[in-house]
Specification:
The protein has about 290 residues and is an all-alpha fold. About 85% of the residues lie in helices and about 0% in strands. The chain has one domain. Helix 3 packs antiparallel against helix 4. The relative contact order is 0.15.
């Protein structure tokens, strides 16, 4: 009779141990995959991240937004010419150089407007080189799975009650990691959608660049563009810090400390990633 109870207890313990190992393995593997993908995502230009979406945005910008930007540019240049003429004592001190100056500004404005997407791609190309360079330095291996290398031996030494508690704990940790992984996914993909929305209206702010009164619109837009582009570098720095912090706990002989420490650092990572957007805009004065 007691042998039957012992067999059932051993079977139940084995079930708990397998469940705990499965929960932790899945949790760490998902985390490794999600975090490891970040470098590849933030290192992409808008054109390379999703070519179909980029082509759609570019077509909309060139067929819908660009004509509006042309009207705005025409108004600005006309206003610029009138202002330049009446500034010289209502044409009493008119100089021919004013006309050449206006023609040169018109040429620059039209050149900027017709090459808007080339300028945008140049900004993201520079940022991509920086991000890819940082990825090479940081490395892409975040092997937090080392924390469970001797997990089974530690679990065998636990009582059945402790195993039940730890199994419930592993379920909570696994669910929390799934939520955090989703947050990281939303941050990375949300940034790319924000980039597409920003570049879709690029011709309008770029059409104001050459004017003294309206030029601050174009300058602010360029600052926002650089902030979005270099947000990827800040994200890579966050990943580097995260990798260093995780590396200090994954070899811990205490699986409890390793698991909760990993989750704590991952929560911190998600919180900092949410702040990279505002931080980048602050750094670039956007």
């Amino acid at each position: 009779m007691f042998g039957l109870f012992d067999a059932i207890a051993d079977w139940f313990r084995g079930l708990l141990i397998d469940g705990i190992i499965s929960n932790f393995t899945g949790m760490f593997d998902e985390l490794n995959t999600r975090v490891g993908d970040i470098a590849g995502q933030v290192g992409q230009t808008p054109q390379g991240w999703h070519p179909a979406v980029f082509n759609m945005i570019r077509t909309l910008s060139e067929t819908v937004v660009l004509p509006v930007a042309g009207i705005i540019l025409t108004f600005i240049l006309t206003y610029e010419l009138i202002t330049m003429v009446i500034e010289k004592n209502n044409m009493n001190d008119f100089e021919t150089f004013i006309i050449f100056k206006w023609i040169f500004k018109t040429f620059c404005a039209v050149f900027i407007l017709t090459h808007t997407f080339d300028i945008v791609m140049f900004v993201f190309g520079v940022a991509q080189n920086v991000v890819n360079g940082s990825a090479a330095v940081i490395g892409s291996s975040l092997d937090v799975g080392m924390a469970i290398a001797d997990l089974e031996a530690q679990l065998d030494a636990m009582s059945t009650g402790a195993l039940i508690g730890f199994y419930l704990q592993s379920m909570i940790l696994s669910l929390a990691m799934d939520v955090i992984s989703l947050c990281v996914f939303l941050i990375i993909y949300g940034r790319m959608i924000e980039i597409y929305l920003t570049i879709s209206v690029a011709p309008i702010p770029m059409s104001t660049m050459v004017n003294r009164e309206w030029g601050n619109i174009g300058n602010s837009y360029l600052k926002a563009l650089f902030a979005l582009a270099f947000q990827g570098f800040l994200i890579m720095v966050c990943i580097a810090i995260y990798a260093a912090l995780i590396g200090s706990i994954v070899t811990s002989p205490n699986i409890h400390a390793a698991a909760w420490g990993t989750m704590g650092y991952t929560v911190l990572l998600a919180m900092i990633l949410f702040k990279t957007g505002s931080m980048s805009k602050s750094l670039f004065g956007a």
